[in-house]
């Protein structure tokens, strides 16, 4: 946590902070920066939703005295907001390699298509040879002639 120091006067303020707003800031900043650091489309969508709904959270990490002249000191703990946001960013950096891994589909690999591996294409070629008659054909060897040749060599 940050020390309870008044930024304007530099005096120490000994006060008790009650509430969970620092935790809210930590979660919001963690969710936003997790999406940014991981570059995952699902998390980026959630990050944009968080940014749209809680976009004004950024002003809560600064003291109100920066923006207006108040009669008395603000009773909002900007220190816990700032500490929560810094903690959320640090946690997003630490956990950026954890979680759901990016799946790589077969078509994302270079040279993924091989005609020999395509069973439907091979089946089509076998069932419709007339579609490929104009293509140069390999000579089909007669297995019986090959067997006869082996028998002749054995004699």
TrEMBL record:
It is a multi-pass membrane protein. Pfam families: Rhomboid. InterPro entries: Peptidase_S54_rhomboid_dom, Rhomboid-like_sf. The keyword Transmembrane applies. Residues 16-97 form the Peptidase S54 rhomboid domain. The chain crosses the membrane at residues 12-36, 43-62, 82-99. It is found in: Membrane. The keyword Membrane applies. SUPFAM superfamilies: Rhomboid-like. Keywords: Membrane, Transmembrane, Transmembrane helix. This is Peptidase S54 rhomboid domain-containing protein.
